Amino acid sequence: MNTIPLPRRPRIYLAGFDVFRRDAREHGARLVAACAQYGFEGVYPLDAEAPADLDGPRKAAWIYRANIDAIRGADIVMANVNDFRGPGEPDSGTAFEIGYAAALGKEIWAYTSDEGTLIERVPSVPNPQGRVCERGYLVEDFGLGKNLMIACAAHLVHGDARACLEAMAPGRTR
C-alpha cells in the first residue's frame, strides 16, 4: 500500500531577545507550541544545546553557527522587534538575523507592541537638519515605528507573537 506523504509544515525560526529572558526555555516552548497551533513548526534558538566543554568565545561561535544553520533551514523568520535596550532599538542580534534572512530571500515577519513612530519615541531635540538624539545623531523620520531596514524587510505586525502567527496563517495549509 502506497502512502502519500503529508506536506511539511512551514518551519519558522523564532528570532528575538526572548533568549535573554530568565525563563527563556519555557518561553521558547510556549512560542513553539503557538506555532504548532497555527500550522507551523517553530524553531527556537535555544533548541540547539551548545557542548558543555566550550569556553566563552568558542561557545559564542558555536551558537552563531547553529543559529545561522537554523535560519538557512527555515522557511520563514519571525522576529520579536520590540524595543530592547533603548527606545526605537530592537536587539542587534535579531536585526542581524533579519538581515541574514533577507539576504537569503526568506519570508520575514516581525512583531512589536511598541506604539508610535521612531521620531515620537526616541528622545530628541529639534535641529535645523531634523530631530537629534541625546548622542547627537539624527533620528530617522519616515513615519515608521522601526528603522527602515527592518520595517521594509519584514511584514510588521503590531502585537505579540500570537498576533503575528495569526496574521501569517491565512491562506496557508493547516
Question: Rough shape?
Answer: globular
The CATH first-level class comes to Alpha Beta
CATH fold descriptor: Rossmann fold
Report the total helices.
Answer: 6
SS-based structural class? alpha/beta
Helix content estimate: 25-40%
Number of strands: 7
| Radius of gyration from the alpha-carbon trace, in angstroms | 18 Å
Largest sheet: 5 strands, parallel
CATH architecture: 3-Layer(aba) Sandwich
Order of helices and strands: EHEHEHEHEEHEH
Keywords:
174 residues, alpha/beta, Rossmann fold, five-stranded parallel sheet, two-stranded antiparallel ribbon, globular
Task: Summarize it.
The protein has helices at residues 24-37, 56-73, 92-103, 118-121, 148-151, 161-168, and strands at residues 11-15, 41-43, 76-80, 107-112, 124-127, 130-133, 155-158. With 174 residues, the chain is an alpha/beta fold. The protein is globular and about 75 Å long.
Word description of this protein:
With 174 residues, the protein is an alpha/beta fold. It has one domain: Rossmann fold. It has six helices and seven strands, in the order E-H-E-H-E-H-E-H-E-E-H-E-H. The protein has helices at 24-37, 56-73, 92-103, 118-121, 148-151, 161-168; strands at residues 11-15, 41-43, 76-80, 107-112, 124-127, 130-133, 155-158. The strands form two sheets. Strands 2-1-3-4-7 form a five-stranded parallel β-sheet, with helices on both faces. The protein has a two-stranded antiparallel sheet with strand order 5-6. Strand 1, helix 1 and strand 2 (41-43) form a beta-alpha-beta unit. The chain is globular. The chain starts with 10 loop residues before the first strand and ends in a 6-residue tail after the last helix. The model has no long low-confidence stretch (mean pLDDT 94).
